[in-house]
């Protein structure tokens, strides 16, 4: 059977109050312990839902007795009461039996409802009695507590008067203590200052401590980083070893680029020499133009002197002419006088006319001379102008040439600088490669079998073909056991003198770059040391390392001399120590 309370929607307390049918259970809760034991729950009965009230129909007769017990304990809500009151028979109009049954059922429920109301009323009466009892006891308690309160008030007044006395004495004490406190404050201030200085010193000390701690931490970090770098270096060494083998392959490409660089260098050197030739020709031109300029200057000076002389002569001639003209004027005045005096003597007149004619002739010749001199002066001036023009032209040309020479000298210096830089870069790269390859390198050369060696008894030497030791490893086989060896390079019997020299030539280049280099051969008697170092001079392709190195040294030193390098070679003493197994050069 489903619980009714579960199906019924919850009712708010406000609705109950509106209805005036406050739930007795709520009421009991309000009253607390006083309300307990009153009402149907006090008997321990459980309150169950009244299914007959809700359903109205379909309740079986067998269950009715049980339902009635439960119905006696049921609590009615306002809606339920209204539902019961408003309930109308649902049977058909003339179904009297059904109507009757419904009326019986309805009547039963109404009775239950009335019963429940009566019970509630009884409960309310009981509650009221309880409440009046408790009110009386509470009033008694209140009177007792008021009496107690009065007693306590009297006690408290006595205590207050005592406290006031105490307060006055305490105020006196307080004033004393205030003065003491001021002293204490002053002392405290001085202590604070002292403390501040102490704190400062503590702060500096803590800073120092922190610094020291930081230093320690940094040292620890450095130690760990050093450990790490040590590990990394070990790893790096391993990687370098791998890288070294890779470099050997890269070396070929680098060598090619080196050759290209050297070719470029040669072209630069050629350009440099042509530029130098051009520069020298320009300098010659410059000296020639300087000489021509000097000539022009000398010519100009001579012409200036000549013009000065001619000007002097012209001035003199002009003076002469003026004196002659003044004389002619005087003579003509005399003639006039003579004519006026009416011909004193005709002879004198003739003489005078003769003299006058000759004077006029000299005058005209002098005029001619003056004209010629003026023409000469104009020509000399023209020449002077021309000389000035040519001098200024030569000066301009000279300046132009000087500028070109300066340009060329700058370019030359630039080229030389670039060449020097390129050479230094090449040196550094070359020697870095050599350092990467290893400062100490050991090569192994296996000579071919000679007729004197006799027939070979099986294979005693083999060359591993693995990538790791290709061209670097050699296996010696003795009594069926293999002994592997690894070198920087292994030359097999087919390797030519040139092949060996290719490896050595880089060291010779290093020696020319100013690094100290030592090459020596070591091996058993008859193993081919002399052949490798000296070779057979009669056959050019079988020349050894020493003649090839010397050739390289002279060749490169000559080519580098053009770049301004100076090599000083001294044959101090070339030791060739052949101590049966060792060859030191
Ligand atoms: N790579 C080679 N190719 C051809 N012949 C060789 C080669 N190496 C050495 N020989 C020959 O082997 C012989 C011995 O060589 P070599 O005299 O150079 O040996 P060595 O080590 O200088 O001996 P020792 O220590 O006694 O002077 C010579 O006849 C030489 O021509």
From TrEMBL:
Biased amino acid composition, Basic and acidic residues: 15-26
**What protein name applies here?**
Kinesin motor domain-containing protein
Family membership = Belongs to the TRAFAC class myosin-kinesin ATPase superfamily. Kinesin family.
InterPro entries named in the record: Kinesin-like_fam, Kinesin_motor_dom, Kinesin_motor_dom_sf, P-loop_NTPase, Vik1/Cik1_MT-bd
Cite the entry's keywords alphabetically: ATP-binding, Coiled coil, Microtubule, Motor protein, Nucleotide-binding
Q: Which residues form a coiled coil?
A: 128-264, 300-425
| Residues binding ATP | 523-530
Location of the Kinesin motor domain = 439-585
Q: What top-level branch of life does the organism fall under?
A: Eukaryota
Positions of the UniProt region annotated as Disordered: 1-47
């Amino acid at each position: 059977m489903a619980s009714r309370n579960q199906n019924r929607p919850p009712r708010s307390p406000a609705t109950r109050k509106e209805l005036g049918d406050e739930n007795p259970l709520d009421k009991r809760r309000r009253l607390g312990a006083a309300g307990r034991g009153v009402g149907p729950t006090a008997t321990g009965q459980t309150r169950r839902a009244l299914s007959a009230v809700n359903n109205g129909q379909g309740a079986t007769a067998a269950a009715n007795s049980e339902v009635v017990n439960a119905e006696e304990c049921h609590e009615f809500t306002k809606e339920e009461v209204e539902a019961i009151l408003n309930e109308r028979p649902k049977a058909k109009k003339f179904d009297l039996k059904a109507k009757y049954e419904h009326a019986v059922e309805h009547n039963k429920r109404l009775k239950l409802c009335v019963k429940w109301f009566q019970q509630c009323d009884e409960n309310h009466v009981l509650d009221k009695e309880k409440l009046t009892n408790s009110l009386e006891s509470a009033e008694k308690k209140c009177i007792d507590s008021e009496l107690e309160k009065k007693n306590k008030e009297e006690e408290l007044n006595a205590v207050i008067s005592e406290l006031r006395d105490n307060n006055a004495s305490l105020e006196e004490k307080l004033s004393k203590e205030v003065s003491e406190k001021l002293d204490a404050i002053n002392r405290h201030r001085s202590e604070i200052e002292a403390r501040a200085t102490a704190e400062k010193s503590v702060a500096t000390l803590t800073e120092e401590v922190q610094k020291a701690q930081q230093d320690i931490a940094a040292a620890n970090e450095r130690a760990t980083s050093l450990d790490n770098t040590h590990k990394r270096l070990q790893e790096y060494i391993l990687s370098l070893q791998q890288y070294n083998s890779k470099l050997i392959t890269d070396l070929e490409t680098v060598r090619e680029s080196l050759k290209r660089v050297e070719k470029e260098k040669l072209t630069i050197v050629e350009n440099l020499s042509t530029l130098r030739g051009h520069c020298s020709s320009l300098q010659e031109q410059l000296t020639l133009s300087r000489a021509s300029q000097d000539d022009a200057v000398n010519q100009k000076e001579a012409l200036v002197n000549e013009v000065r002389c001619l000007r002097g002569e012209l001035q003199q001639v002009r003076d002469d002419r003026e004196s002659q003209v003044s004389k002619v004027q005087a003579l003509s005045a005399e003639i006039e006088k003579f004519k006026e005096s009416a011909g004193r003597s005709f002879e004198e007149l003739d003489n005078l006319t003769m003299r006058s004619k000759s004077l006029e002739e000299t005058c005209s010749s002098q005029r001619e001379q003056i004209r010629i001199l003026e023409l000469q002066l104009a020509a000399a001036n023209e020449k002077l102008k021309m000389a000035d023009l040519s001098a200024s032209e030569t000066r301009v040309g000279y300046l132009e040439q000087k500028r070109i020479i300066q340009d060329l000298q700058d370019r030359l210096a630039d080229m030389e600088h670039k060449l020097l830089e390129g050479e230094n870069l090449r040196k550094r790269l070359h020697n870095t490669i050599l350092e990467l390859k290893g400062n100490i390198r050991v090569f192994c050369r296996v000579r071919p079998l000679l007729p004197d060696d006799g027939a070979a008894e099986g294979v005693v030497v083999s060359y591993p073909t693995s990538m790791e030791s290709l061209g670097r490893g050699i296996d010696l086989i003795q009594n069926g056991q293999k002994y592997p060896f690894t070198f920087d390079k292994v030359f097999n019997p087919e390797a030519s003198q040139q092949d060996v020299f290719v490896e050595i030539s880089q060291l010779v280049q290093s020696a020319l770059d100013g690094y100290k280099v030592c090459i020596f051969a070591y091996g058993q008697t008859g193993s081919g040391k002399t052949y490798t170092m000296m070779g057979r001079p009669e056959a050019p392709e079988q020349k050894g390392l020493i003649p090839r190195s010397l050739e390289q040294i002279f060749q490169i030193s000559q080519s580098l001399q053009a770049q301004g390098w100076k090599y000083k070679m001294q044959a101090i003493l070339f030791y060739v120590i052949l101590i049966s197994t060792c060859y030191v050069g």
